[in-house]
Design brief:
Two copies of one chain form a homodimer. Chain A is mainly alpha-helical and 215 residues long. Chain A has a domain of 140 residues. In chain A, 49% of the residues lie in helices and 0% in strands. In chain A, helix 2 packs across helix 3. The radius of gyration of chain A is 29 Å and the shape is rod-shaped. Chains A and B meet through helix 3 and helix 4 of A and helix 3 and helix 8 of B. Chain B binds a DNA duplex (20 and 20 nucleotides) through helix 3. Chains A, B: It is found in: Nucleus. Chains A, B: GO terms for molecular function: DNA-binding transcription factor activity, RNA polymerase II-specific; sequence-specific DNA binding. Chains A, B: Belongs to the HD-ZIP homeobox family. Class I subfamily. Chains A, B: It comes from Spinacia oleracea (Spinach). Chains A, B: Transcription factor.
DNA sequence: TCCTAATAAGGGGTAAAAAT
DNA sequence: ATTTTTACCCCTTATTAGGA
């Protein structure tokens, strides 16, 4: 009833899902690169060339387009993530500079109002080198800044993404570094780090991940 | 050798591509919500309940998991984008504050060294509003950033990034505003602040970011 | 009638359990 | 210890429903 046997060596009658040969795939990919949406006649030509039904060629291009699109979503993610990381880095730099400026302002004000003071030697208190102390909690404590909160918040989220997007992990120990400052309850959701399933999907672990909770 | 148990491999006589009924789908979805990877016996039970081959149930769950995973990527994207936006907004706030601080420092220094100065008359002179370059070079020029390497070639071809780009661009205006004060690095980079020792700020631009260390 | 989105199913590859 | 079975992943082919 269905498929005509025109160009089919393989019985296409039943849903024989034989993969196309490597050459066929190669040619199709080549055509796809030059034109992802060929017209009917082009498809017909391709079909004749490769010994496929025009219908198969059509379907192949459709599927190929869909595949391309879905792959692009992943690429979008990593690009956006790169931008996020970059921005986070800049954020940190800016924050440190901000701290420096605050200290400088204090120093200058001290100079202005008092002859000299040793308030400026408190500069590099917590923002020392190594990675863990990154999220130094509010170095601007000198002058109460309303922005103090966003450090942990942002960084934590960033790490969450690191966690659940990395395909191979094995490094579950770095959670400590933000746990240090997450002593308060505001980060209760971090319990999920232990259940983030590194291998593609959740295993027998039936705990839903945090991002699944609001679908 | 053949598999008699539940999930018999018996090829469906014909490729019944009929979609499952809405009821079947509904039940399956319900089961999936409670358990995305049912065991054989569960699948058998479901199959019996819904009048499907165990094989079909198995396949359905597999496909459903795959679907879930790919949707997850999209959700990750929007979550990440939300975080990006949030961080960007905080970045802007911080930047404005930074500018205020710079002006204040200038004012204080002016007070100290000269009787008076009008350094605070910086107006948004150059609000360039041209379009597409997301990786506009500016916002962080005040401190040389190694992350500037991501250039627009990765960005183009992304329709998803349209909003993203436009946001970046819209935040650009204030950057220019800020740049006025920091056109030369004499003020912007805290390097010149004599009292505070800010070398830790920008000496190691090429150090990988802390979150890159364990990706 | 073209398309896209969703989806059922085939088939290869693989890891771990079960059987030899 | 090896082979076989089983279950699952990934990717693919094909079908169906619906939109412009």
């Amino acid at each position: 009833m269905d498929i005509d046997p025109v160009a089919s060596e393989q019985t296409n009658k039943n849903c024989n899902k034989r993969r196309f040969s490597d050459e066929q795939i190669k040619s199709l990919e080549l055509m796809f690169n030059s034109e992802s949406r060929p017209g009917s006649k082009t498809k017909q030509r391709i079909a004749n060339q490769l010994g496929l039904h025009p219908r198969q060629v059509s379907v192949w291009f459709q599927n190929r387009r869909a595949r391309s699109k879905s792959k692009q979503t992943e690429r979008d993610y990593s690009i956006l993530k790169a931008h996020y990381d970059s921005l986070a880095s800049k954020f940190e730099v800016l924050k440190k500079e901000n701290q420096t400026l605050i200290i400088e302002v204090q120093r200058l004000r001290g100079l202005k109002e008092r002859p000299k003071d040793s308030t400026s030697d408190s500069a590099p208190a917590t923002c020392s080198s190594n990675g863990e102390s990154f999220s130094l909690s509010s170095p601007e404590k000198l002058i109460a800044k309303p922005e103090d909160y966003y450090t942990q918040d942002e960084i934590l989220c960033n790490d969450k993404f690191e966690e659940f997007k990395s395909f191979e992990q094995e490094t579950n120990n770095q959670e400590n570094f933000y746990m240090i400052e997450s002593a308060d309850d505001s980060l209760a959701s971090s319990r999920n780090y232990s259940s983030v399933e590194p291998t593609y999907l959740m295993e027998h672990n039936c705990i839903p991940n945090w991002w699944e909770l609001w679908v």
